[in-house]
Amino acid sequence: MPNLILADLAHEIEANVRRALAEDIGSGDITAQLIPAERLAHAKVITRETAIICGTAWVDAVFRQLDPRVAVHWHVEDGQRAEANQVLFELEGPARALLSGERSALNFLQTLSAVATRCQHYAALVQGTGVKLLDTRKTLPGLRLAQKYAVTQGGCHNHRIGLYDAFLIKENHIAACGGIAHAITAAHKIAPRKPVEVEVESLQELREALDAGADIIMLDELSLDEMREAVGITRGRAKLEASGGVNENTLRAIADTGVDYVSIGALTKDVKAVDLSMRVINNLLKE
User: Fold this and answer.
1) What's the average model confidence in pLDDT over 242-247?
2) Which among 170, 207, 237, 269 is annotated as catalytic?
3) Which of 58, 104, 220, 253 has the fewest CB atoms in 10 Å of its CB?
4) pTM as predicted
5) Can 170 be counted among the known catalytic residues?
6) pLDDT tens-digit series, residues 139-178
7) Tens of pLDDT, residues 49-58
8) Of these residues, 64, 138, 194, 239, which one is catalytic?
9) Dmax (CA) of the chain
């Protein structure tokens, strides 16, 4: 499946930000009302730790929706590495808007940068193998496209977006359909142009999936020896994806078996937010 690009996400970003601002500000930021409406401010945002930055477009949208008079000056781009204590961006504009937007903006940036940073770490572990690391559907509700975009900024790749853009036929689907061949045949009839992936738990099931014309075959928790044998059996007739039991300690050995893809839920589901901080500098200025 093709990777998401920022141009695909314009409407998604605006919707993400509208929901975040409605959730946080609600009927109005009563604390910001302590500040005179005409007061201007200048602020800097830094990262307290090394990170791969992602989420600049979401930050821009936060302040654009709050008050288009706010100017955002970036010192980094998506996909760029930032070091601890580095200034990521500066803000100039109405003080109320800067303070009202701070938390929503940083929530997007710290979360998406965390995903990008995790992905860059995993991608480095398989450098030189030719394998592609794939994300999964284990994402935060409402932020799937954002997180999947962040995956690409860390050097990994997107699997299917949801249940609509590709088939992934698993054990329960196979049982309900009456077998691997029946499931794959039905998939080709339902949506002839959609990719068909099937999960297998043995080399015998692999052969069945190949004979039935699967496009991608997921090797579910097969041993390293079985994965290597699967590569030899397949010989390019389908793409092979390893899944299950993947972590930092096992990833390189799995990649070295010759599979095409490795899918890893940890790229998105249990990341730790990057530590960011915003500070208003030079006091608040009068217009």
Assistant:
1) 92
2) 170
3) 253
4) 0.94
5) yes
6) 999 999 999 999 999 999 999 999 999 999 999 999 999 9
7) 999 999 999 9
8) 138
9) 75
Given a contact cutoff of 8 angstroms between Cβ atoms, the answer to whether 126 and 252 are in contact is yes
Other CB atoms within 10 A of residue 231 CB: 16
Distance CA 142, CA 20 (A): 10
Active site residue 286: no
Return the pLDDT at 245. 85
Per the residue annotation, which of 29, 78, 199, 205 is the catalytic one? 199
39, 44, 64, 103: the catalytic one is 103
Q: Where are the alpha helices (DSSP H) in the chain?
A: 10-25, 56-66, 95-125, 144-153, 171-177, 180-190, 203-212, 224-234, 251-255, 266-269
pLDDT of 32-47, one tens digit each?
999 999 999 999 999 9
pLDDT digit string, tens, across residues 199-214: 999 999 999 999 999 9
Q: What letter would DSSP give residue 202?
A: S
All residues at 6 or more sequence positions from 112 whose CB lies less than 8 Å from its CB, including other chains: 54, 55, 58, 146, 147, 149, 150, 153
199 is catalytic: yes
